[in-house]
Amino acid sequence: MSRRRRFMSRDRYASTSSFSRAALPQYAAVASRAALEAGALLARWIGRPKRVATKRSAIDLVTELDRACERLIDRTLRRATPAFGFLGEESSERRGELPYRWIVDPLDGTNNFVHGLPLFGVSIGLEDCTRRPGTILVGVIYDPMRHELFVAGQGRGAYLNRRRLHVSSTATLSHSLLSTGFSSKFLEHTQPYLGWFTKLQRRSHGVRRLGSTTVSLAAVAAGRLEGFYEQDVWPWDIAAGMLLVEEAGGRVTNFQGSPVILDQGRIIASNGRIHRELVRVLTHPVRSR
After folding, report:
1. CA-CA distance, 56 to 187, in Å (whole number)?
2. What's residue 17's pLDDT?
3. Band (269; pLDDT cuts 50, 70, 90)
4. Rounded to a whole number, what is the largest CA-CA distance in the chain?
5. Cβ(130)–Cβ(137) under 8 Å?
6. How far apart are CA 263 and CA 197, in angstroms?
7. Which of 101, 103, 93, 34 has its CA nearest to residue 69?
């Protein structure tokens, strides 16, 4: 049996309906299985979805693959953890008023996917709703085009294909490579997005727009980027990625340097060493137009 199949086979706890912190590896295993299944479907259809529609704006696309992958993930998670709640991007469904819920983005980077650009991912996080909002216990991100499976458990570290992850050791913003995202609200008010972008482009090795919050957060956890920032994000955009960054030794806050509340929509994720510099730049007023 392959290492991947041995790892996935540990979700035999699936029939239980109660939560156990000792079972975090098993929750991570079933989330990983769901992400791999969805990713395999996406990899087959990249660049050729049959139907493309818009949601919140003209640049906010959705395809039948987004919805099909969410249904697939939901079925897998529901079989394993029937007592847990579920929040998915495409259904925005809040099933159950229970203390634990899965937060799922079945395809983060839909625009890239539609155009055949291989930068997108599947994101699955498990939230503990009994604690501070945004307390994530398990985070799984899968990049199907690079076959990269990122897995984190609270207090258990972050891993890429079973290799332990550590954030970058770069100590200054001026030597950092950053990423950002322009949300679906960008067309409504291009500032402060462009103002922040211009300032940080000048003060760093560059700012990239990968088109996927999920992929960007995974890259910070892997030490490929020193930092990421975005406003107007949704809970499913960041739930898994923020835990990955923290478990890889990084830091995640809102723009004021306080803990992230999932529904507030602003995030800075970094290697920790440049975090104060990022907060200073992002809290400085940017003139609106």
Report:
1. 11
2. 44
3. very high
4. 59
5. no
6. 23
7. 34
Percent over 70 (pLDDT), the chain: 84
What is the 3-state secondary structure of the chain? CCHHHHHHHHHHHHHCCCCCHHHHHHHHHHHHHHHHHHHHHHHHHCCCCCCEEECCCCCCEEEHHHHHHHHHHHHHHHHHCCCCEEEECCCCCCECCCCEEEEEEEEECHHHHHHCCCCCEEEEEEEECCCCCCCEEEEEEEECCCCEEEEEECCCEEEECCEECCCCCCCCHHHCEEEECCCCCCCCCCCCHHHHHHHHHHHCCEEECCCCHHHHHHHHHCCCCCEEEEECCCHHHHHHHHHHHHHCCCEEECCCCCCCCHHHCEEEEECCCCHHHHHHHHHCCCCCC
Round the average pLDDT of the chain to a whole number and report it. 87
Distance of CA 204 to the CA centre of its chain: 24
Contacts of 182 (CB under 8 A, 6+ apart): 193, 209
Tally of CB atoms within 10 A around 203: 16
CA angle 101, 157, 244 (to 5 degrees): 55
Q: Which pLDDT score, from 0 to 100, does residue 15 have? A: 36
Specify the pairing of strand 100-108 against strand 85-88.
parallel
CB 212 within 8 A of CB 121: yes
Structure tokens, 199? 């300032």
Length in residues, the chain:
289
Which tens digit of pLDDT belongs to each residue from 184-211? Answer: 776 777 778 899 999 999 999 999 999 9
- Upstream peptide bond of 259 is cis (omega within 30 degrees of 0): no
| Three-state secondary structure string covering 85-126 | EEEECCCCCCECCCCEEEEEEEEECHHHHHHCCCCCEEEEEE
Kindly give, in sequence order, each residue whose CB lies less than 8 Å from that of residue 209, ignoring residues fewer than 6 positions away: 179, 180, 181, 182
Nearest to 108 by CA among 270, 225, 241, 253: 241
